[in-house]
Design goal:
Helix content: 25-40%
CATH topology: Rossmann fold
Shape: globular
CATH class: Alpha Beta
Radius of gyration: 21 Å
CATH superfamily: HAD superfamily/HAD-like
Number of domains: 1
Order of helices and strands: HHEEHHEHEHEHEHE
Strand content: 5-15%
Distance between the termini: 40 Å
Largest sheet: 5 strands, parallel
Number of helices: 8
CATH architecture: 3-Layer(aba) Sandwich
C-alpha cells in the first residue's frame, strides 16, 4: 500500500490556567518545502505534465515520417535507422513525490531504492499514454536513469536497482525490460553524465525525441560538480547559455517535465 504522509503544521497551544501558563507541544516534523507540495497538490503541476506529453504526441508522427529529423544535434546521418525516444525515469515517467514528502534528510540513493522497493510507483500524468502511443507508432523507447547500480548486502545481483526500476515502470503502466533500461554504473563508462548512454543508443537508432525533467537529460556537462567525461563544473550562467543555445529544440524534439523538488539546478551558483 502506498504510504501517505500529510504535511504537518507547527502549532503553539496556549493553555490558559489560573497562572496564565503557555505550554508548547513536542516538536513536529518540518513541513515539506513548497516545490514538493506544489507537485503533490497542485492542479497546475498535472496540467503542465499533461501539456508536455500532449505536445510530444502532436509532434510524434511528423518526426517519424521525416527521415532527416533527429533530436540529437550531433547525430549527423541517421537515415534508415528505426526511430527511438529516450526517456528519463524519475519525475518524467515515475513520480517520487510521496518519497520526497516522507524523506528525512540527507538524501541517499539507498533510501530511494528501499522506498521504491516497498511502495507502488505512481505515473507522471500523461506518461503511460504517450509511451504506449510511441510504441504503437513503431518507435523504440529507452529509459536512461541515474538511479545507480550499487551492491546490496545479501543480494547476489550486481545491479538489484534495475529490477526495482523495471518494476516501478510496470506499476506506473509502462512495461519495460532490461535491454531498454540503462542505469548509471551499469556498464563501464556509464557515469551520471548521460551522454555516453545516449550516444550508444544513437549508434543503432534515430533519436527523434528526448523527454526529461532535468537539463542533464538533454545537454552535457550542466552539473555544478563535473562528472566524467566532463571536466568543468557548470554555473547558473553557463546553464542558461546552453539552454538558450538549443532554444529551437524545446517543445520541438525536447520535452521538459516540471520538477521544482530536486535536480542539477539546485547546486548551480
Amino acid at each position: 500500500m502506498k504510504i501517505k504522509i500529510a504535511p504537518k503544521m507547527s502549532l503553539l497551544l496556549c493553555l490558559t490556567s489560573a497562572l496564565g501558563a503557555c505550554v508548547s507541544p513536542p516538536p513536529t516534523a518540518s513541513e515539506p518545502h513548497a516545490g514538493i507540495l506544489w507537485v503533490r497538490d497542485s492542479a497546475e503541476y498535472r496540467a503542465l505534465a499533461i501539456q508536455a506529453y500532449a505536445a510530444a504526441a502532436k509532434d510524434l508522427q511528423g518526426m517519424i515520417d521525416d527521415p532527416s529529423w533527429s533530436a540529437l544535434p550531433d547525430e549527423n546521418d541517421a537515415t534508415g535507422r528505426k526511430p527511438a525516444i529516450i526517456f528519463d525515469v524519475d519525475e518524467t515517467l515515475v513520480s517520487n513525490v510521496e518519497f520526497q514528502v516522507a524523506l528525512e534528510p540527507p538524501f541517499r540513493n539507498s533510501k530511494l531504492d528501499d522506498w521504491n522497493a516497498a511502495n507502488e510507483a505512481l505515473p507522471v500524468p500523461g506518461a503511460p499514454e504517450f509511451v504506449q502511443l510511441a510504441r504503437d507508432s513503431g518507435v523504440e523507447v529507452f529509459f536512461i536513469t541515474n538511479r545507480p547500480c550499487e551492491p546490496k548486502a545479501g543480494v547476489a545481483d550486481a545491479c538489484p536497482q534495475e529490477r526495482v526500476t523495471i518494476e516501478d515502470l510496470r506499476e506506473a503502466g509502462i512495461p519495460a525490460d532490461a535491454k531498454h533500461v540503462m542505469l548509471a554504473n551499469e556498464q563501464p563508462g556509464w557515469t551520471g553524465e548521460k551522454k555516453v548512454r545516449r550516444d550508444l543508443i544513437a549508434q543503432d537508432y534515430r533519436i527523434i525525441m528526448l523527454v526529461g525533467d532535468d537539463l542533464g537529460d538533454f545537454l552535457d556537462c550542466v552539473r555544478a560538480r563535473p562528472v566524467a567525461p566532463c571536466t568543468e563544473g557548470a554555473t547558473k550562467a553557463s546553464r542558461e547559455r546552453e539552454a538558450g543555445k538549443y532554444s529551437t529544440l524545446w517543445g520541438n524534439g525536447w520535452y521538459m517535465l516540471p520538477n521544482p523538488m530536486h535536480g542539477s539546478w539546485t547546486s548551480a551558483r
